[in-house]
Amino acid sequence: MLNVDDFLSASFGDANTSVERDLHLNLKKVLEDGALDEQERFLSFLAVGTSLHNHAMVDFASAKLKALGLSDELILEGKQSAAIMGMLNTYYKFKSFLDPQTAENYARAGLRMQSLMKPGNGKERFEQMAFAVSVINGCPTCVASHEKALIQLGTSVDKIHDLARLAAVAKGLSMLKN
């Protein structure tokens, strides 16, 4: 089962309502077309699926990435990017809730982030996954930070937009059935 239609049907059932049809068609579009290459799409889908605790998404993305030639180590890094971003999104969202003067008391996060220095999938792909997971986790500070990093790495606005759309559609689908 390596095509999007089979995945959708097996994981989320038939698209019987207009909402289900919209979500199915939107996922098909973001996973089969757009500015992102196939590995970028499925690495980000893997990270987002992991963040959403959606095993069907994780299994499908992992199988697709394996078929595209990614090693088990790089696939694992894609999954684990959701974990490190979950930690950071939670911390920086906490800071965004505070009054700016109070937030100054927490100037340094003091959280170990060595894994972000030299990701095996490359800096741009890590930033793509980090951006998509940050969108899912609703951290405005992290979304802005990773969007800025992607632009500095030369990532097109179209790719960034596709990452946001991928995260949004995955979130919607995960609410149908998990």
Topology, element by element:
Layout: H1 4-12, H2 18-32, H3 38-51, H4 55-67, H5 72-97, H6 100-103, H7 123-137, H8 140-152, H9 157-174
Helix pairs in contact: 2-9, 3-4, 3-5, 3-7, 3-9, 5-7, 7-8, 7-9
Question: Brief overview, please?
Answer:
71% of the residues lie in helices and 0% in strands.
Report on this model:
This protein has 178 residues and is mainly α. The protein contains 9 helices and no strands. α3 (38-51) crosses α9. The protein is globular, with a radius of gyration of 16 Å. The relative contact order is 0.17.
List keywords for this structure.
0% strand; globular; 178 residues; 71% helix
